[in-house]
Each structure stands twice: as structure tokens, then as C-alpha cells.
Design brief:
- It is a single chain.
- Helices cover 45% and strands 8% of the residues.
- It is mainly alpha-helical and 100 residues long.
- The chain has one domain.
- Strands 1-2 form a two-stranded antiparallel ribbon.
């Protein structure tokens, strides 16, 4: 019987991510609440959300998620305000996405 003791190539990125998250949790950079939210999201949360601002780049689903994060995690207080008030842009090579 042949045993493989190494990681498969497809599993290396996930392993690295999990290792990094564990180091960050032990260091106090990720709280238990933040980790649980990352794993489970806001499943079962029945909450009314503020009306989505009239900005074309922001989807309803993203707006709801930002509001849920702000409600459930202290580290994200003010996210719903900041997400629309702070112009940002991302550029990958020739592609540029802008919110202003």
C-alpha cells in the first residue's frame, strides 16, 4: 500500500490560509466572533436593514452583508457609512474599477 504524506497541490492554498488564520486567532488579530461570522455568515439573522444608497456599483446583497457585519461585529461599526462615503478604485493591469 502506498501512502502520500505530502499535501496535494490543490490543497496547499487552503492549508496556508487555515494556518495563517490560526496564527492570527492565537495572536488576537481575529476574534472568535469574527471567525464564526466568516464561517457561518449571518445565517438566521432577522433584521431590517437601512435602505441601500443610490449607488450603481453596490448590489443589494453586498449592502445587506455590510449592514449585517456592522450589526454583529464591533470591529465593523461604521462600515455601512464608510462603504459609500469613501471613494476607492482597484486596478489590475489595464482594468480599472472605480466607485467615484
Amino acid at each position: 500500500m502506498l501512502f502520500n504524506r505530502g499535501l496535494f497541490e490543490r490543497d496547499k492554498l487552503v492549508f496556508s490560509f487555515m494556518l495563517c488564520c490560526e496564527i492570527m486567532k492565537i495572536s488576537g488579530l481575529i476574534s472568535t466572533d469574527e471567525w464564526n461570522y466568516f464561517l457561518r455568515g449571518a445565517a438566521g439573522l432577522k433584521k431590517d436593514h437601512p435602505r441601500k444608497p443610490d449607488v450603481g456599483w453596490l448590489s443589494q446583497a453586498t449592502w445587506k452583508e455590510a449592514c449585517n457585519m456592522e450589526f454583529m461585529l464591533n470591529s465593523f461599526v461604521g462600515l455601512s457609512r464608510d462603504i459609500t462615503a469613501t471613494p476607492c478604485w482597484v486596478q489590475f493591469g489595464q482594468l480599472k474599477v472605480s466607485t467615484d
